[in-house]
């Protein structure tokens, strides 16, 4: 017997740096029954897609990206300055994530309550037959499985099988090696739909908890202190530090703003007050995305520019970055830009707190 799920979306797409969220977003395209005919809401034009741009030729990819926006926001990963699977960072800039964190049950359960799905979990100690039976049963019902194999930070989807051969999906479809179970670290088997149970209040409170986390203020102080003590000996390290810190919010805050400005049903359906939701969409757009408003996304590009970083350098520092950061003018520019990024977060947090008082 052979079973291959339809409407597969290879991942990651565009700026999707969190592999687990990208995998889950592609899984939920299938779980939620999206097809090429499902209308897609375009936040740029504030209307359903009319195929005016090349992105209109790939509606399932656009749906996957919208789901990614919402999942990254609901998980709070959109509001840190690092990702919690990055063991080079200690402490992390989000509450509830300790060093060595690996997608704990509480994290997965929160996303399941937000998105509305049931799940089972297995690891490498689970018998192969038990894992395979659970995966096949879910695939027969139309639900994929998230797998983490030999690369402990990378997730793939199990999207089909033929006898004992399992077919996986990441950037492309492929058959898994016959010894996949010996490589297994983690399996999250999606078993069905459930009614989403995360309230809009809880959703907003989670964001406030992330944005008001004490490590944000601590990191801001560390950045300013480091920029006050740049030397020829440490210039490359400090340039790398600034570039690394900038790499997460420039992307993640964009996802957060898009989640509030879009029409992805997981978030829209949980909203209990349309006026509050519109108000929050306005503040996140203004502080994170609106061009010419010293928004965080634009600030991130300015930080990269001050360090001589961009697509031509693979978004990584070079020897020029060290030379630039030794200049007092660059140091003061970076201080101002990072201060504004932290100020934007505080403005968003204050507005969410004010809206919570209305709910």
Tell me what the structure shows.
The protein is of the alpha+beta class. The protein has 13 helices and 9 strands.
Into which percentage range does the β-strand content fall?
5-15%
Number of helices: 13
- Mean of residue pLDDT values: 94
Give the CA-CA distance, first to last residue.
52 Å
Helix content bin: 40-55%
Q: What structural category do the secondary elements indicate?
A: alpha+beta
What assembly state would you assign to the polypeptide chains in this entry? single chain
Order of helices and strands: EHEEHHEHEEEEEHHHHHHHHH
Envelope shape: globular
Show unreliable segments: none
Largest sheet: 7 strands, antiparallel
Number of strands: 9
**What Rg, in angstroms, do the CA atoms define?**
21 Å
Short description:
This protein has 359 residues and is of the alpha+beta class.
List keywords for this structure.
two-stranded antiparallel ribbon; seven-stranded antiparallel β-sheet; 359 residues; alpha+beta; 13 helices
Describe the protein's topology.
Layout: E1 2-4, H1 19-31, E2 41-42, E3 47-48, H2 59-74, H3 105-115, E4 117-123, H4 128-140, E5 145-148, E6 155-162, E7 165-169, E8 173-175, E9 186-193, H5 200-211, H6 214-228, H7 235-247, H8 249-261, H9 265-270, H10 274-288, H11 296-306, H12 319-325, H13 328-356
Antiparallel strand pairs: 1-6, 2-3, 4-9, 5-6, 5-9, 6-7, 7-8
């Amino acid at each position: 017997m052979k079973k291959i799920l339809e409407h597969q979306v290879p991942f990651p797409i565009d700026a999707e740096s969190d592999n687990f969220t990208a995998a889950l977003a592609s899984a939920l395209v299938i779980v939620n029954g999206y097809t090429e005919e499902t209308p897609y809401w375009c936040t740029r034009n504030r209307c359903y897609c009319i195929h005016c741009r090349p992105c209109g030729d790939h509606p399932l990819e656009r749906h996957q990206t919208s789901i990614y926006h919402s999942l990254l926001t609901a998980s709070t990963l959109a509001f840190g300055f690092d990702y919690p699977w990055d063991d080079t960072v200690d402490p992390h800039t989000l509450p509830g994530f300790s060093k060595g964190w690996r997608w704990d049950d509480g994290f997965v359960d929160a996303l399941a309550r937000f998105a509305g799905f049931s799940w089972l979990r297995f690891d490498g100690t689970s018998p192969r037959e038990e894992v395979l039976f659970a995966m096949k049963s879910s695939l027969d019902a139309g639900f994929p499985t998230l797998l983490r194999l030999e690369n402990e930070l990378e997730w793939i989807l199990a999207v089909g099988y033929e006898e004992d051969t399992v077919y996986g999906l990441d950037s492309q479809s492929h058959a898994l090696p016959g010894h996949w179970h010996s490589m297994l670290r983690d399996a999250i088997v999606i078993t069905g739909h459930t009614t989403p149970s995360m309230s809009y209040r809880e959703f907003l409170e989670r964001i406030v908890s992330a944005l008001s986390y004490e490590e944000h203020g601590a990191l801001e102080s560390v950045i300013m202190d480091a920029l006050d003590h740049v030397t020829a000996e440490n210039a490359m390290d400090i340039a790398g530090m600034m570039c690394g810190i900038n790499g997460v919010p420039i992307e993640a805050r964009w996802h957060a703003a898009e989640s509030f400005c879009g029409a992805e049903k997981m978030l829209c359906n949980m909203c209990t007050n349309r006026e509050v939701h519109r108000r929050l969409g306005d503040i996140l757009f203004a502080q994170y995305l609106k061009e010419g408003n010293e928004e965080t996304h634009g600030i991130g590009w300015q930080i990269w520019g001050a360090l001589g970083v961009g697509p031509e350098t693979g978004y990584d520092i070079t020897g020029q970055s060290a030379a630039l950061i030794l200049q007092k003018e660059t140091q003061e520019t970076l201080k101002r830009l990072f201060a504004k990024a932290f100020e934007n977060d505080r403005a968003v947090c204050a507005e969410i707190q004010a809206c919570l008082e209305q709910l």
